[in-house]
């Protein structure tokens, strides 16, 4: 079918295949093997997949397994919960599958460059469409017809290619900088561990051992957290209806250790110099609050 507007493509005009993942694949989880792409492997900062927390599977030898297998050039779209996070499957991905929270869009490469489509959907052009769909009642999730109704600008092949090359060069700089930051973070973690077990260099000569604290200077006095905490609480359930485009931060477990950009109302504010511990998903990971936010 030809596009109805010379200024844009509907995905249904350029997609050769669209599907979403299957439920109940936890039984196929494995320590190695093909990758199982979940919504946590998609990020809003780039269309590159984040495989640092990768799950592996032994896929079933069935039509379901073949249907949900990713091919090089596929565009991945989160269709439940946090709508509209975009990923792009490169040739280097290898054998991989998606779960039920992700739609796979396979595009006709003679009509459009798939990477251009991924970038367009990740841009404000695409994200505004996801916000409209969410506002119209699709908060619980997008169906495949919603996905096929998404539009991208129709530009020349040369413009698509030049845009891709330019953005890839920026991504390369970002990845190089990220690698330096990660090495610095590892150094900081090692130094922190050393400081918490040996103290400052040359300051201590006698050490004790505790079955919970491990090795530490005898001049240090262990304290129970309950004896020094002024407040211990946890967030409330069912705050989705309060999510807003501005206001105080709403901190979720996935924000601990990675920053937060989700916003909500002013209720249940957490004040400066408090510490949060994740109680689920990422158990025990701490974050120190330097500005006001909300926990959930």
Q: What is the helix/strand order?
A: EHEEEHEEEEHHHEHEEHEEEEEE
- The amount of beta strand, in percent, is 15-25%
Assembly status = single chain
Structural class by helix and strand composition: alpha+beta
- Tell me about the largest β-sheet: 4 strands, antiparallel
Cα-based radius of gyration, to the nearest Å: 23 Å
Give average pLDDT, whole number.
Answer: 82
Please give the number of β-strands: 17
Residues in helices, as a percent range? 25-40%
Ranges where pLDDT stays below 50 over 5 or more residues in a row are 258-272, 289-296
Task: Trace the largest sheet across and list its strands.
Answer: 2-8-5-6
Q: What gap, in angstroms, lies between the N and C termini?
A: 46 Å
Key traits:
4-stranded antiparallel β-sheet; elongated; 296 residues; 4-stranded mixed β-sheet; 28% helix; disordered C terminus
Description of the molecule:
The chain has helices spanning 11-14, 63-67, 114-122, 124-138, 144-148, 157-198, 225-228, and strands at 8-10, 15-20, 29-37, 55-57, 75-78, 86-88, 96-98, 102-107, 151-153, 207-210, 214-217, 248-251, 263-264, 269-270, 274-277, 286-289, 293-295. The protein is α+β, with helices and mostly antiparallel strands. The chain is elongated. It starts with 7 loop residues before the first strand and ends with a strand.
Compact description:
By secondary structure, the protein is of the alpha+beta class. 28% of the residues lie in helices and 23% in strands.
């Amino acid at each position: 079918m030809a596009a109805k507007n010379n200024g844009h493509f509907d995905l249904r005009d350029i997609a050769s295949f669209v599907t979403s993942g299957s439920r109940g694949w936890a039984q196929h989880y494995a320590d190695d093997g093909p990758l199982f792409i979940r919504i946590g492997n998609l990020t809003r900062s780039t269309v590159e997949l984040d495989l640092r927390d990768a799950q592996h599977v032994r896929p079933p030898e069935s039509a379901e397994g073949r249907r949900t297998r990713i091919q090089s050039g596929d565009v991945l779209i989160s269709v439940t919960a946090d709508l509209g996070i975009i990923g792009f499957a490169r040739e280097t991905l290898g054998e991989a599958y998606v779960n039920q929270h992700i739609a796979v869009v396979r595009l006709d490469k003679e009509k459009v460059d798939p990477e251009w489509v991924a970038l367009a959907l990740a841009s404000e052009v695409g994200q505004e469409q996801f916000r409209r769909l969410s506002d119209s009642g699709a908060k619980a999730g997008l169906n495949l017809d919603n996905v096929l109704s998404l539009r991208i600008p129709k530009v020349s092949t040369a413009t698509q290619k030049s845009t891709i090359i330019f953005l890839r060069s920026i991504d390369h700089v970002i990845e190089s900088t990220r690698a330096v930051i990660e090495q610095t973070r590892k150094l900081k973690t090692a130094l922190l561990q050393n400081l918490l077990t040996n103290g400052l260099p040359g300051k201590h000569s006698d050490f004790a051992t505790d079955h919970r604290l491990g090795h530490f200077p005898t001049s240090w006095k262990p304290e129970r957290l309950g004896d020094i905490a002024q407040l211990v609480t946890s967030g409330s359930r069912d705050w989705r209806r309060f999510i807003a485009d501005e206001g105080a931060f709403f901190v979720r477990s996935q924000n601990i250790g990675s920053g937060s950009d989700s916003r909500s109302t002013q209720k249940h504010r957490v004040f400066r110099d408090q510490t949060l511990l994740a109680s689920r998903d990422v158990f025990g990971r701490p974050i120190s609050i330097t500005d006001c936010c909300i926990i959930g």
